[in-house]
Amino acid sequence: MFPDSLRVVTIDAPDDLDAATAAIVLANIEDPVVRWIFDTPLRMMTYATQLFRVLVTHAFDSAALQRTDDGLAVACWRPPGVHHDDGEIAAILHEGCAPEKLEAFGGMAAALERYEPKGPFWYLSALGVDPIGQNRGRGALLLQARLAQCDAAHLPAYLWSSNERNVPFYERHGFEVQTRLRVSTCPPMIPMVRHAR
């Protein structure tokens, strides 16, 4: 487990965005869907880094980017009622993904939206722990911090898991699998909802 002194902090300085992006990229080095999209080392390090930087920036702009104070774990959230322009993400995917995969992934993304909760909800766009800090409770600490806020406001939370191995972790925190979506050769994408409490 992590030291008792480890805390969750909201990232409020632009200078911290590079470190947050790096932690999430490292956490996703073996993610099945990310590696399917960015299927060479160069594509992974170039375009996945750009993609996660956009997610980090969106969360930062919404005052919803959190990390453990050792910087090894990062959570990117989108608060209720906040919407971001996905144009940057579409451009990164268009440039970094093979055209046949891009079409399949577009179909998957459209299907995932159907599982979003009705009304306001918190959306977890990315949660990552640097591999050197994994399996020590950092991800759970980050998740619990935001879910306590969800519970206080009686709001649901929503995410897409792109890694089957992470599903039990989210289930332990009250998320429920909605379905397992497959399109073409893309590994499963798993929408999960934690209902309001």
Automatic annotation (TrEMBL):
PANTHER family: GNAT FAMILY ACETYLTRANSFERASE, N-ACETYLTRANSFERASE DOMAIN-CONTAINING PROTEIN
Protein name, per record: GNAT family N-acetyltransferase
Family matches, as PROSITE patterns: GNAT
Domain N-acetyltransferase: 50-197
Coiled coil: none
